[in-house]
Write a structure and sequence with these properties.
Length: about 450
């Protein structure tokens, strides 16, 4: 029912008003891109200004007449507003225009419905659609207000509208229950990765910033990547190997957009929690976008809403191939810590610098050294092997083991505590070849 989308190429009339009392105006160019991403064919674009929305039609009576003429002239099948419409405004407009009317939230939900591929993604989209639809059940169809007829069904019973509402509540409850199961499964996966000390790196950013293209470059995956809004909907995770860190998990997530409908944030919370629990966020930014700074701020607002604003973050300025003034580089702060990387995911430029910056940020608590173990420390050697910490091993003539190890500091301290040892009791070989006492 909720995924029977109409064929693409619907003729659409677009409406965008500049409201003087609006907190933040939606970008009209982005709005047109959204319509095209949904498969619409913009036939006309009506714009104007109002101090406040008209309570009945959102637009004024003069603009409504202009809208009627545009619908008739172009034989438009749908009118789409770059604003949030109330259910009554949608009904009133449909009655006058005699065609479907969609607001910004309905448009984004339509795109999400087209993009959903996995079972979880479809559940999340259906949840958002049902919650959006719950206030729009009447839609002017009068038969919904009549009671059921027929033998045994006359008299005081539910109206069709009440039946629909009851069925909708039951479906919402079922979806919430299934998504809660998905959330718990994801949480179990995160706990398992945490126990194994496998860090998670999540790609976040404004829609169409190039996250999936970057993901494919780093992981050699074949995730769907297109120059369109919300090309990625279902989260994808891949294991990668990083120098000095070892195994890590890279996650590609859904893109954000200005004024992202709250229903979507709630519905996709199970997916967005992957970003909220990451060890590092790679905030991908389209560096040639005129609205670059505004997009960064919008992503920051969504991250704050899902409780991820305090996580370590690395800005990744993408698409440097579209401007000759940019070149691959790492920007560092006063302490030498990476704060931004400039790359071209499409051309593969700057990927090495990006991985170098990621390693610098993740490897702060990783011990990478060469230990000298006496023959009496055989149990310690076995524990290091069991934790996959040993990179290479060689023997000296006196029986001493030389082990190159790499593991998180917390793991090393746990192993030493199990052996009732202090790090200062261990010897290591420094870069100059001198034997020193380990102190971590």
């Amino acid at each position: 029912m909720f995924f029977d989308r109409p064929d693409s190429g619907e003729l659409a009339v677009l409406v965008h008003l500049e409201l003087s009392q609006a907190e933040a105006s939606n970008d009209p160019r982005e709005f047109e891109e959204l319509v095209i991403s949904a498969g619409g064919d913009p036939a006309a674009f009506l714009s104007g200004q109002r101090a406040t929305p008209h309570p009945k039609f959102f637009v004024g009576t003069g603009k409504l007449e202009e809208l009627q003429r545009a619908v008739l002239e172009h034989k438009a099948e749908v009118v789409i507003f770059n604003h949030e419409l109330s259910p009554s405004q949608e009904r009133n407009l449909e009655k006058v225009l005699q065609c479907r009317v969609l607001d910004r939230t309905g448009l984004i939900l339509d795109i999400f419905a087209q993009r959903a591929r996995t079972h979880e993604g479809k559940l999340q989209v259906e949840l958002a659609q049902l919650e959006h639809m719950s206030t729009r059940l009447i839609r002017g169809w009068t038969h919904l207000e009549r009671q059921k007829g027929g033998i045994g069904m006359r008299g005081p019973g539910e109206t069709q509208l009440e039946t629909d509402r009851r069925l909708l509540r039951a479906r919402l409850k079922s979806i919430h229950k299934r998504l809660e199961k998905v959330r718990k499964q994801r949480e179990q996966g995160r706990r398992a990765r945490s126990r194994a000390e496998i860090p998670t790196v999540s790609l976040v950013g404004y829609t169409n910033a190039g996250k999936s293209t970057l993901f494919n470059q780093i992981t050699d995956a074949s995730v769907y990547a297109e120059d369109q809004l919300f090309a990625t909907l279902d989260p994808t995770m891949r294991k990668i190997e990083l120098d000095q860190v070892g195994s890590a998990v890279l996650a590609d997530t859904v893109g954000f957009i200005s004024n992202l409908p709250h229903k979507l944030v709630e519905s996709f919370r199970a997916t967005l929690e992957e970003a909220a629990s990451a060890d590092l966020l790679l905030h991908v930014v389209d560096c040639v976008d005129d609205e670059r700074q505004r997009n960064i701020e919008q992503v920051g607002e969504v991250l704050e809403e899902i409780g991820a604003s305090e996580l370590p973050q690395l800005l990744v300025y993408n698409k440097i191939d579209l401007n000759d003034a940019y070149a691959p580089r790492i920007d560092r702060d006063e302490s030498g810590k990476p704060v931004a990387v400039w790359v071209s995911a499409q051309q593969g430029e700057g990927i090495d610098q990006l991985l170098e910056a990621v390693v610098d940020l993740l490897a702060e608590d990783v011990v990478h050294t060469t230990l000298l173990l006496q023959p009496s420390l055989g149990r310690l050697r076995a524990r290091l092997f069991k934790n996959n910490a040993v990179i290479s091993e060689s023997y000296h003539s006196d029986g001493t083991n030389e082990l190159e190890i790499r593991l998180p500091l917390a793991d090393l301290n746990r192993i030493l505590a199990a052996e009732e040892m202090q790090s200062s009791q261990l010897e290591f070989v420094d870069p100059s070849g001198q034997v020193q006492r380990l102190a971590v």
